[in-house]
Write a structure and sequence with these properties.
The protein has 8 helices and 6 strands. The chain has 240 residues and is α/β, with parallel strands linked by helices. The strands form 2 sheets. It has a 4-stranded parallel sheet, with helices on both faces. The protein has a two-stranded antiparallel sheet with strand order 3-4.
Protein backbone atom coordinates (compact mmCIF):
# COMPACT_ATOMS: atom_id res chain seq x y z
CA UNK A 1 0.00 0.00 0.00
CA UNK A 2 1.08 3.53 -0.78
CA UNK A 3 0.20 6.86 0.79
CA UNK A 4 -2.13 8.77 -1.55
CA UNK A 5 -0.52 12.14 -0.90
CA UNK A 6 3.23 11.39 -0.75
CA UNK A 7 3.24 8.17 -2.74
CA UNK A 8 5.56 6.51 -0.21
CA UNK A 9 4.85 3.06 1.23
CA UNK A 10 2.57 3.17 4.29
CA UNK A 11 4.90 0.89 6.25
CA UNK A 12 7.87 3.19 5.67
CA UNK A 13 5.79 6.22 6.68
CA UNK A 14 4.67 4.53 9.90
CA UNK A 15 8.25 3.57 10.80
CA UNK A 16 9.46 7.11 10.13
CA UNK A 17 6.78 8.53 12.43
CA UNK A 18 7.66 6.11 15.23
CA UNK A 19 11.34 6.99 14.80
CA UNK A 20 10.53 10.70 14.96
CA UNK A 21 8.53 10.23 18.19
CA UNK A 22 11.36 8.22 19.78
CA UNK A 23 13.90 10.88 18.77
CA UNK A 24 11.78 13.66 20.31
CA UNK A 25 11.51 11.69 23.56
CA UNK A 26 15.27 11.13 23.73
CA UNK A 27 16.01 14.78 23.00
CA UNK A 28 13.50 15.86 25.66
CA UNK A 29 15.27 13.73 28.24
CA UNK A 30 18.73 14.97 27.25
CA UNK A 31 17.95 18.67 27.00
CA UNK A 32 15.23 19.09 29.65
CA UNK A 33 16.21 21.20 32.65
CA UNK A 34 16.22 19.26 35.92
CA UNK A 35 17.07 20.19 39.50
CA UNK A 36 20.67 19.40 40.48
CA UNK A 37 19.55 18.40 43.97
CA UNK A 38 16.47 16.19 43.48
CA UNK A 39 16.31 15.76 39.66
CA UNK A 40 12.83 17.30 39.49
CA UNK A 41 12.09 18.79 36.03
CA UNK A 42 11.66 22.52 35.51
CA UNK A 43 14.60 24.51 36.89
CA UNK A 44 18.33 24.01 37.64
CA UNK A 45 17.51 24.25 41.37
CA UNK A 46 13.93 23.72 42.53
CA UNK A 47 12.27 25.80 45.24
CA UNK A 48 12.70 23.12 47.91
CA UNK A 49 16.41 22.74 47.23
CA UNK A 50 16.89 26.53 47.17
CA UNK A 51 15.36 26.68 50.62
CA UNK A 52 17.67 23.88 51.82
CA UNK A 53 20.67 25.91 50.64
CA UNK A 54 19.82 28.62 53.19
CA UNK A 55 20.84 26.40 56.13
CA UNK A 56 23.29 27.85 58.65
CA UNK A 57 26.87 27.23 57.48
CA UNK A 58 29.35 25.30 59.62
CA UNK A 59 32.20 27.16 61.26
CA UNK A 60 35.61 26.13 59.97
CA UNK A 61 38.94 27.65 61.02
CA UNK A 62 40.65 29.42 58.14
CA UNK A 63 37.81 28.88 55.62
CA UNK A 64 34.60 30.82 55.10
CA UNK A 65 31.85 28.37 54.13
CA UNK A 66 28.47 29.22 52.58
CA UNK A 67 26.44 26.04 53.22
CA UNK A 68 26.88 22.74 55.09
CA UNK A 69 27.94 19.78 52.97
CA UNK A 70 24.96 17.70 54.03
CA UNK A 71 21.49 16.73 52.79
CA UNK A 72 20.12 18.49 49.74
CA UNK A 73 22.95 21.02 49.70
CA UNK A 74 25.38 18.13 49.31
CA UNK A 75 23.31 16.65 46.47
CA UNK A 76 23.21 20.00 44.65
CA UNK A 77 27.00 20.42 44.88
CA UNK A 78 27.64 16.82 43.78
CA UNK A 79 25.14 17.16 40.94
CA UNK A 80 26.99 20.27 39.76
CA UNK A 81 30.38 18.65 40.18
CA UNK A 82 29.84 15.13 38.82
CA UNK A 83 26.70 15.34 36.63
CA UNK A 84 27.48 18.42 34.54
CA UNK A 85 24.80 20.65 36.11
CA UNK A 86 26.74 23.80 35.19
CA UNK A 87 23.61 25.95 35.26
CA UNK A 88 23.77 26.07 39.07
CA UNK A 89 27.26 27.65 39.16
CA UNK A 90 25.89 31.20 39.31
CA UNK A 91 23.54 30.32 42.16
CA UNK A 92 26.35 28.66 44.14
CA UNK A 93 28.52 31.73 43.59
CA UNK A 94 25.64 33.85 44.87
CA UNK A 95 25.60 31.85 48.10
CA UNK A 96 29.31 32.63 48.61
CA UNK A 97 28.71 36.32 47.84
CA UNK A 98 25.90 36.40 50.40
CA UNK A 99 28.20 34.84 53.01
CA UNK A 100 30.88 37.43 52.28
CA UNK A 101 28.32 40.18 52.80
CA UNK A 102 27.27 38.66 56.12
CA UNK A 103 30.81 38.89 57.51
CA UNK A 104 31.40 42.38 56.09
CA UNK A 105 33.93 41.64 53.34
CA UNK A 106 34.14 44.62 50.95
CA UNK A 107 35.12 43.97 47.31
CA UNK A 108 37.88 46.30 46.13
CA UNK A 109 38.86 47.13 49.72
CA UNK A 110 39.33 43.82 51.53
CA UNK A 111 39.95 41.80 48.36
CA UNK A 112 41.49 42.82 45.03
CA UNK A 113 41.32 39.71 42.85
CA UNK A 114 39.51 36.36 42.72
CA UNK A 115 41.18 33.03 41.95
CA UNK A 116 40.48 29.34 42.57
CA UNK A 117 42.13 26.13 43.74
CA UNK A 118 42.36 24.28 40.41
CA UNK A 119 41.55 20.62 39.97
CA UNK A 120 43.94 18.31 38.14
CA UNK A 121 44.12 18.20 34.35
CA UNK A 122 42.73 14.66 34.22
CA UNK A 123 39.65 15.61 36.23
CA UNK A 124 39.09 18.73 34.12
CA UNK A 125 39.24 16.72 30.90
CA UNK A 126 36.90 14.09 32.35
CA UNK A 127 34.25 16.61 33.43
CA UNK A 128 34.80 19.15 30.68
CA UNK A 129 35.23 21.98 33.17
CA UNK A 130 36.88 22.96 36.45
CA UNK A 131 34.09 23.38 39.00
CA UNK A 132 36.04 25.77 41.25
CA UNK A 133 36.99 27.96 38.28
CA UNK A 134 33.38 28.17 37.11
CA UNK A 135 32.21 29.29 40.56
CA UNK A 136 35.10 31.75 40.90
CA UNK A 137 34.37 33.43 37.57
CA UNK A 138 30.68 33.81 38.38
CA UNK A 139 31.57 35.15 41.83
CA UNK A 140 34.08 37.65 40.41
CA UNK A 141 31.42 39.04 38.06
CA UNK A 142 28.95 39.38 40.93
CA UNK A 143 31.55 41.19 43.05
CA UNK A 144 32.83 43.37 40.19
CA UNK A 145 36.39 42.06 40.59
CA UNK A 146 38.91 40.56 38.16
CA UNK A 147 39.30 36.78 38.11
CA UNK A 148 42.78 35.43 37.41
CA UNK A 149 44.34 31.98 37.31
CA UNK A 150 47.07 32.39 39.92
CA UNK A 151 47.61 28.73 40.86
CA UNK A 152 48.83 25.63 39.05
CA UNK A 153 48.24 22.26 40.65
CA UNK A 154 51.09 19.80 40.80
CA UNK A 155 49.92 16.83 38.75
CA UNK A 156 51.57 14.37 41.13
CA UNK A 157 49.04 15.42 43.76
CA UNK A 158 46.09 13.63 42.14
CA UNK A 159 42.38 14.25 42.91
CA UNK A 160 41.11 14.64 46.48
CA UNK A 161 37.67 13.11 45.93
CA UNK A 162 37.44 9.44 46.85
CA UNK A 163 40.34 9.58 49.28
CA UNK A 164 40.23 8.74 52.97
CA UNK A 165 40.46 11.51 55.56
CA UNK A 166 44.07 10.60 56.32
CA UNK A 167 44.94 10.84 52.62
CA UNK A 168 43.09 14.16 52.28
CA UNK A 169 45.16 15.65 55.08
CA UNK A 170 48.22 15.25 52.86
CA UNK A 171 47.63 18.47 50.94
CA UNK A 172 48.08 18.71 47.16
CA UNK A 173 50.94 20.89 45.95
CA UNK A 174 50.48 24.20 44.09
CA UNK A 175 52.68 26.66 42.25
CA UNK A 176 51.56 30.28 42.43
CA UNK A 177 52.15 33.43 40.41
CA UNK A 178 51.05 36.96 41.21
CA UNK A 179 51.09 39.80 38.70
CA UNK A 180 51.49 42.40 41.44
CA UNK A 181 52.80 41.66 44.96
CA UNK A 182 50.76 42.99 47.85
CA UNK A 183 47.36 42.07 46.43
CA UNK A 184 44.58 40.64 48.61
CA UNK A 185 43.28 37.42 47.06
CA UNK A 186 39.90 35.72 47.38
CA UNK A 187 40.61 31.98 46.99
CA UNK A 188 37.61 29.87 45.92
CA UNK A 189 36.90 26.13 46.09
CA UNK A 190 33.73 24.08 45.80
CA UNK A 191 33.98 21.90 48.94
CA UNK A 192 36.12 22.14 52.08
CA UNK A 193 36.47 18.87 53.98
CA UNK A 194 39.80 18.83 55.81
CA UNK A 195 40.84 22.28 54.52
CA UNK A 196 44.16 20.86 53.29
CA UNK A 197 43.68 21.94 49.66
CA UNK A 198 42.83 25.54 50.50
CA UNK A 199 45.57 25.68 53.10
CA UNK A 200 48.20 24.56 50.60
CA UNK A 201 46.92 26.92 47.90
CA UNK A 202 46.83 29.84 50.36
CA UNK A 203 50.42 29.16 51.45
CA UNK A 204 51.55 29.14 47.81
CA UNK A 205 49.92 32.53 47.17
CA UNK A 206 51.49 34.06 50.26
CA UNK A 207 54.88 32.74 49.22
CA UNK A 208 54.79 34.87 46.04
CA UNK A 209 53.76 38.08 47.80
CA UNK A 210 49.99 38.06 48.42
CA UNK A 211 49.34 40.42 51.32
CA UNK A 212 46.26 38.50 52.42
CA UNK A 213 44.34 35.42 51.28
CA UNK A 214 40.70 34.84 52.17
CA UNK A 215 39.72 31.21 51.53
CA UNK A 216 36.05 30.50 50.75
CA UNK A 217 34.11 27.38 49.79
CA UNK A 218 30.53 26.80 48.68
CA UNK A 219 30.11 23.88 51.08
CA UNK A 220 31.99 22.49 54.04
CA UNK A 221 31.82 19.61 56.47
CA UNK A 222 31.56 20.40 60.19
CA UNK A 223 34.79 20.25 62.13
CA UNK A 224 35.02 16.97 63.99
CA UNK A 225 35.36 17.16 67.73
CA UNK A 226 36.84 14.47 69.88
CA UNK A 227 34.36 12.56 71.98
CA UNK A 228 35.08 11.11 75.36
CA UNK A 229 35.26 7.33 75.20
CA UNK A 230 32.06 5.61 76.30
CA UNK A 231 31.84 2.70 78.68
CA UNK A 232 34.54 4.11 80.95
CA UNK A 233 33.56 5.05 84.49
CA UNK A 234 35.54 6.32 87.38
CA UNK A 235 36.14 3.68 90.04
CA UNK A 236 33.84 4.02 93.00
CA UNK A 237 35.48 5.12 96.22
CA UNK A 238 35.57 2.40 98.77
CA UNK A 239 33.94 3.22 102.06
CA UNK A 240 36.45 3.71 104.89
Amino acid sequence: MFDRVSGTPVVATSRARRGSVCLRRVLARVFSVRCAGCDAPGTPICRTCRFALLASPPQRPGVLVAVPFTGRARRVVLGFKFHNRRAVAGHLAGLVRRRLEQVGVRPGIDIDVVTWAPTGDARRRERGFDQAELIARHLARQLGLPCRRLLIREESSGPQSGRSRAERLRAPGFRARLDRPGRSVLLVDDVATTGATLGSASAALRSVGASDVLSVAVAGTPVRTRRRPTGHRRPLRQAA
